[in-house]
Structure formats: structure tokens, C-alpha cells
Specification:
It contains ten helices and eleven strands. It is an alpha+beta fold. The strands form three sheets. It has a five-stranded mixed beta sheet. It has a four-stranded antiparallel beta sheet with strand order 1-4-3-2. A hairpin with a 5-residue loop joins strand 10 and strand 11. Helix 5 packs antiparallel against helix 6. About 20% of the residues are buried.
């Protein structure tokens, strides 16, 4: 807006100044020109008699030069008798400011002519005049014909006045431009202040401060915009508050149901353990095995739901300890009967400060996921690693299976996402990878999934050094 105000003011000033300059210059030059032509006419009328005696043209020429020549040299005159061939010779050096051209002098023998010229960077006015209508004698025409009068006028005075006028116009333009700039700043400040307030409020709203509002002043369009923004913010605050309330209620519901299921599941697991120790034959055996498997699956699902509810409630915390990474990984696999099916690769003396229980959950979920959905060999590699200058631990679980489908690559860590969506029943709960990632984030690390170029899937866990996490905290 400031640029637009300035541009309009500059254009208007330049246009007005240009028109004024052209009009003043024309008026000034025409006034000077008319004054000179009037003086020339008056001199010719006064000094040239109606009938010129023989040999009187030299005297008339001298009188004309004396009458028109100015003391300061601004006006110079040169009068010469008209030759028989009407070809006026050029004036001697110094008699005129500018030597007229042949065409100009030729035209001057037929009446009065004038022309503005520039010589060596200076402006001049040339006037040529000859009194026509004289009857000359056939034997001595040159003695009885009035002289041709040539006059040069310096226009330096007018040029100086124009330069002074130009400086005044430029000064006025500069003052007008400064005034327009000041007015533009005042106008834009008053216009942009509410826009800035709206911008600050919108950024605050985007940052989660739903109580952000803007003051409404006036009845113009900006005030209407502020009122609309406030109404939108109020509606958004109500909607988000309701959604948060519903989300909190659903989380409490899941947590409460999960906790309530724990007690009957404990009794059911005790019964199924007895059934598992006393296998039966026939239909009773099949039913017993099905009950045992489904009860254990339900128990895992309830445990996962309880863990997820802790993350959602923000109640999950770390219990850090110094552990030997290789021994912890091996123990986690052995506790689930996976040690013989997984290859381990890493330094045996690597130590890390982390939460052993949560690290065990991550390793078990990644290895179990690789064995269920991939193909052997499944390899777990671990070692020290630095990212963005921060020391830490990296652990990679790789299999040789079909890999992660492209449609699931961005949602593989979402809750209840399974490799085969059509299979509603499977050994997994669909929460293992989500819990693993939540535990990685709780450590301040990352968990990423990718497909191996020669086949298979790869999950990479990176956990920063506990000292780095404590410094950030």
C-alpha cells in the first residue's frame, strides 16, 4: 500500500509538473518571441521611410542595428543592403550569436521569419525581416531598396528562469512525495493494525490457543472480518472441546474396560492352563485348545489396550537403568522362544542407559512381527550410532519376506493395522508396532519402517543417549 500510494503520488506529481513545465516554457518563449518581433516591426516602421532615397540604405541599416542592439549583448542585429541576386552574404564573425543558414536568409528577403535554434548548448532566437513593396529604379535597385535585417536574441535568461522553475517544481514534487509517503504510512498503519491482530490471533489459534479472539472496532469491512473470525473461533473452540471430551471419555472407557477384564481373564487363564496340562481327545480336545488359544490372545489384547491407555493418558514414564544391550536383546528373544529363530549381530560389550522393560517390549514386538509376517532369516543388528551429532543406539530388525505393502507403508504404525486387512482374526492384536513406536518416542528416539531392496522389511530403532535426553529435559 505504501508503494502504491507513493507511485500514485509520484505519477501525479510528475504529470502535473511536466504539463506545468511545458506550458510555462511555451508561454515564456512565446512572450519573448513576440516582444522581439514587435521591436523589429516597430524599428522597421519607424526607421525605414516609405520611399528610400539613393544611398540611404546604409544609413538605415546602421540605424536599425543601433536601435535593436542591446547594451548587454543579449540582442544583436545585422543589416545589409539587398543584393541584386537576393543572396544575402553571411554576417561577419561576432555580429550575431549564430550564423543563419542560407535557406533562412533567403526566406528573410521575402518578409519576416523567425526560428529558435541551439548553438553550443545555448538557445537563441533568430529573426529575419525585409520591408517589401518598394518600387526600385531599373538602373540602381540596390541604392533604393531597404536593407535585409537579421537579429539574434540570446534566450539564456529564459533558460535560467526555466531551470529555476524546474528546481522549484522538483522541490515541490519531493515535498508532495514526502507528504504522500507520510499519509500512506499513517493510512496503512491504521489499516494493517487490525490485519496484524487477525494474523496473530490466527497463528495463536493454529498453535492450539482456542481462546484467542480479536477486538472489534468500528463498522467497516475489517470489523466484520474480526466478528466473523471471533464467531469461527468460538465455534471451533466448542467443537474441539466436545471432541476432546469425547476422546477422553473413549480413552477412559477403554482403560476401564481393560482393567475390568483383567480380573476375569486372570481366572480364565488359570483354568485354561489346567486344560492345557490335561489334553483331551476328540471334540473336547479341540475345544480345549481353542479356548486356551483365544484366552491367551484376549489376555494379550487386554494388556496392549492397558498399555495404550497409559500412553494416551500421559501416564507412561521411563525407569532408566544401565543395561548390556546384547544380553537384554538375547533375554527378550529367549523369554518368548524366539532365540533360535533370530540371528543376532552386534558388539557384546555395548552398554546403554534405557528402560529395560520398554526396550524388551520393542524388541519382542519387532522380532515377533518379522517372524509372523516375513520369512527367515530374521536378523537383529545393534550398535552405537550418531544422528545429527547426537550419540545413541541403533537396532535394526530385518526379514526376507514379501515386505510391507505400499498401501500400508505410511500407516504401518497406526493402531489396529494388519498386513492383511481381510483377516479379522490373527495372532496379533494390531497394536504391537504402535506400542513399540510409542516406547521409542518415550525414550526420545525414532522407529522407522522400510522395504529392503532385495526383498523383505526392515525396522530401524534409534534411541539417543540418556545423558543427551536429560540435557534436553
Amino acid at each position: 500500500m505504501v508503494a502504491a500510494f507513493t507511485a500514485v503520488a509520484l505519477l501525479a506529481s510528475a504529470l502535473a509538473s511536466g504539463i506545468a513545465y511545458v506550458l510555462v516554457r511555451r508561454a515564456m518563449l512565446e512572450r519573448t518571441q513576440e516582444a522581439v518581433l514587435t521591436d523589429v516591426r516597430e524599428a522597421l516602421r519607424r526607421l525605414v521611410p516609405p520611399q528610400l532615397p539613393p544611398d540611404a540604405n546604409l544609413t538605415v541599416a546602421a540605424d536599425l542595428e543601433q536601435a535593436l542592439r542591446s547594451a548587454d549583448g543579449r540582442v544583436r542585429a545585422y543589416a545589409v543592403p539587398l543584393p541584386l541576386d537576393r543572396d544575402v552574404p553571411p554576417p561577419p564573425p561576432g555580429r550575431l550569436h549564430v550564423t543563419p543558414g542560407h535557406e533562412f536568409t533567403r526566406r528573410a528577403t521575402h518578409g519576416m521569419v523567425f526560428q529558435r535554434v541551439t548553438h553550443r548548448g545555448r538557445p537563441y532566437l533568430l529573426v529575419g525581416a525585409f520591408v517589401t513593396g518598394y518600387v526600385t529604379t531599373a538602373d540602381e535597385p540596390a541604392r533604393t531598396t531597404p536593407p535585409v535585417l537579421l537579429v539574434s536574441v540570446s534566450l539564456e535568461r529564459e533558460a535560467a528562469d526555466l531551470r529555476s522553475f524546474t528546481r522549484s517544481v522538483l522541490a515541490a514534487d519531493a515535498a508532495a512525495l514526502a507528504a504522500a509517503l507520510a499519509a500512506a504510512l499513517v493510512a496503512t498503519r491504521g489499516l494493517l493494525r487490525p490485519v496484524r491482530r487477525l494474523g496473530h490471533a490466527a497463528r495463536a489459534l493454529g498453535a492450539g490457543r482456542l481462546e484467542s479472539r480479536v477486538p472489534v472496532r468500528g463498522r467497516d469491512e475489517l470489523a466484520d472480518l474480526a466478528r466473523t473470525f471471533n464467531r469461527t473461533a468460538e465455534a471451533l473452540e466448542r467443537t474441539v472441546t466436545e471432541l476432546r471430551t469425547m476422546e477422553a471419555a473413549s480413552r477412559r472407557f477403554v482403560a476401564d474396560v481393560s482393567h475390568e477384564l483383567r480380573t476375569p481373564l486372570t481366572a480364565m487363564i488359570a483354568v485354561t492352563d489346567v486344560l492345557a496340562e490335561e489334553p483331551a481327545e476328540g471334540a473336547h480336545g479341540t475345544a480345549s485348545r481353542l479356548v486356551v488359544e483365544e484366552t491367551r490372545r484376549l489376555a494379550r489384547l487386554v494388556e496392549h489396550l492397558v498399555e495404550i491407555s497409559r500412553f494416551d493418558a500421559g501416564a507412561a514414564s521411563l525407569v532408566l537403568d544401565d543395561v548390556a544391550v546384547g544380553e537384554t536383546v538375547a533375554a527378550s528373544l529367549s523369554a518368548r522362544g524366539l532365540r533360535d529363530r533370530v540371528e543376532l549381530d552386534g558388539p557384546g560389550d555395548l552398554m546403554a542407559r534405557l528402560d529395560p522393560r520398554r526396550f524388551d517390549v520393542i524388541v519382542a514386538n519387532l522380532a515377533g512381527n518379522a517372524l509372523r509376517h516375513g520369512r527367515p532369516p530374521v536378523t537383529v543388528r545393534y550398535g552405537p550410532d550418531r544422528r545429527a551429532g547426537r550419540p545413541g543406539l541403533v537396532l535394526t530388525v530385518t526379514d526376507r519376506g514379501p515386505g510391507i505393502p505400499e498401501g500400508l507403508m505410511t500407516a504401518v504404525f497406526d493402531r489396529f493395522v494388519k498386513a492383511e486387512a481381510a483377516r479379522t482374526r490373527s495372532d496379533g492384536s494390531g497394536l504391537g508396532l504402535s506400542i513399540a513406536r510409542e516406547n521409542a518416542l518415550l525414550h526420545g528416539g525414532t522407529l522407522e519402517a522400510a522395504n529392503v531392496p532385495d526383498g523383505g522389511a526392515s525396522f530401524t530403532l534409534w534411541l539417543p543417549d540418556a545423558g543427551e535426553r536429560e540435557e534436553e529435559a
